[in-house]
Amino acid sequence: MPRKITYIIAVIILVLAVIVTLSSRNTRNAYTNAVYIVHHNNSDERIEADLKRLGVTIAANLDESLADFGGRIVDPDEFAAAIVGETLEQVLNLSRSRSVELHMEVFDAGVLANVAAYYKSDSGQAVLAHAPRPTVLNGTITWSEDQEAWLDSLTSDQLKDFVAFAESPSGQALQNAEPTLTQFANQMLPEFEAIVEENITLVGTIELLDREDLVEFDDPKQRENLLEELRSSVN
Hints:
Strand content: 5-15%
Low-confidence stretches: 3-26
Mean pLDDT: 79
Distance between the termini: 79 Å
Structural class: mainly alpha
Largest sheet: 2 strands, antiparallel
């Protein structure tokens, strides 16, 4: 093979190798930025609030039923956390993983880099820190503050940077993708519900009812009789 042809082939191979390396690096950077964005928005907190509300509701219903057996839940919040603990971890892991994949599909590497950079900025950190957050009170989800009033907590410079980001191409891309992100969350509900049904079972509830630090009875024999009846219904 002529030397010039060999040289050209070598150059082409080198160029292709550089392109592949850069592409792989860009993909890794985009993934890293997507993970950062997903882990720093408040989607986790909304999921936690939803599941905590479920746990509080279950605890309240059980506490009412236990009264007929001389029993009561000692700490409803702790019981609620215990009954949804494993479920919460699995749902969060699934949500984060799928959300990262969605961000990689919806946004290009440049947008992901710009959004992550803003989140890491002073203004972005302030927005993430002061944005409304869901809390559970008496089984109802409430927001920490009005979804508009939180802007008042930003300094003039932070607000200026926030407006500049919101009006930038990356900020606009983030806002325009909101319907897609919301649709994604709704489509995930059946999978979340399947995890809940798999983890919150009668067997697991029986184990919690057998914990003296969570549930107390006027007479220890009443606990034994209730647990025996519940276990016989499972077998």
